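User: I'm curious whether this sequence folds into something compact or stays loose and floppy. Could you predict its structure so I can see for myself?
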Amino acid sequence: MQYLTIVSCCLLLFFSVSCEKAPEEVAIKAVSLSQATAEMIIGETVQLQVSIVPSNATDKTVIWASSKQSVATVSSTGLVYALSEGTSSIMATAGGITTSCEVTVIKGFVDVSSILLNTTSLYLVEGEQETLKATVLPDDATNKNVEWSSSVPSVASVKDGIVSAHKEGTATITAKAGNHSAECLVVVKPKVIAVSEIILNKNKLVLMEGEEETLVATVKPDNATDKTVEWTSSDESVARVSSSGKVSAIAGGAAIITAKSGEKQAVCLVEVQKRIPVSSVTLNKESLILEKGQSETLVASVFPIDATDKTVTWTSSNPAIATVSNGVVKAIAGGNATITTSAGGLYATCEVTVIVSVTNLVLSETSLTLVEGQTSTLTVKIEPYDATDKTVTWVSDNPEIASVENGKVTALSGGQTTISASSGSHSASCVISVLSEKDLDLPHAVTVQLNSSYGIALYNGNRFYTKKVTIRNNSIVDVYVNKVESPNCYYYSYDEYYSSMDISVPRIVSINSAVGTIKAGKSFELNLYCTQYPPSSSVIIWFKYNGHDYKITN
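Assistant: Here's the prediction. I'll summarize afterward.
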């Protein structure tokens, strides 16, 4: 019963629905896209939006299509994919209405990822050229232009990849594309200029064993690329040659020295003679005595006679005493020197003594007058000053009148004798006159009168004159001033043999010094300079002679 009830209800429902009216369909009147054109770069996507009018259209299904799917494709939702360069119409169809968007696909900018050169090094000769090839990646890079440059254009330059070698050296060639670059090291070698000739400065050498000589090779032309010279000897037991051309004689014989440069060569014949050593050296004299200024030639003998090298050298141990040149010895100054001659490592000597003889003697006095008991010392000047032996011998012709010792003369008794001084073969003499005290005329007092405001002179009688000390037999005496007494005068002396001597004398002062030596009959003048005119008191001049005091007063 229940089952029937259910069936009845279902049938009632079916008939109820079937009797309702079907809904009215709404058609699409217009279809449009969000953009009519689009410019895309390969790889890009663009979402197109479709608008349907009316918005309540019954069927809003859209069907998408591309007119050229190799350029661009479109998904079922309107997403456009740019695949390659070109144009394509992207079409949208709904309700039988179609609209489209014109899509233009361009390549876009593709960066350079790398640049490669066909080589990283080049070796060129001056004047040569070679082309470098650059590969820019990726292949579809937007800008594949290559910029070329050289680090040293004077060595190697580049243009459009063509490298030109100019002169010897190195340069780096750089190829740049975008932000990437590649380098090539270029080494330029000089242009090869072959050697045309080699010339030696000698084509024959004659050497003694142990000798050396350097050969000089000249390579032509001057600008040959490689002027290196190789030296060789045909027999190194006879002669050897260094890399610089120095030939060394080893042993007697002959050898050929070859100098080679490039493909050219030159030769020199070397003859080596056996060396005969020196066995002895002698001089014709073992000693010499020469006067200063003299010369003498020494003769050296070298044995054996056929010694290879008989060259002798000469030296002096003291050239300030004696010099030597080619065996000629010259005496320079007094003393000793050793002259040496040598040859082949051996030597001989000669002892040279240079003497300087006395040529003249000069005594300080040629005549001298003394009083018994008086002494006087003679000095002697020996010429030349550098005489070797300056020993002086003193002799008195009459030692009882006057004796002499080392030039000191002592008067013993009245008379006359000669004192002689000798050195070498030369001598000089002095005549000594010895007087007794009774033979002397002693000075006597004279008046002193003011002569002017500048001086006081000795005065006798009514005329001015200089006091004369008269000695018999033209003998010589020493006059001494002992002291001067004056309150305001000063003393100085003068005579025709001695220069003036100014001595300040206050009041009474003892002078006690010799003021001159005069001959008999000659003048001896004493002057006083006074600050007061006339002197305020008397002036007393004291003389001391032969141990006794004498005075001159006004």
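Summary: Residues 518 and 552 are 18 Å apart (CA to CA). The first strand starts at residue 30 and ends at 33.
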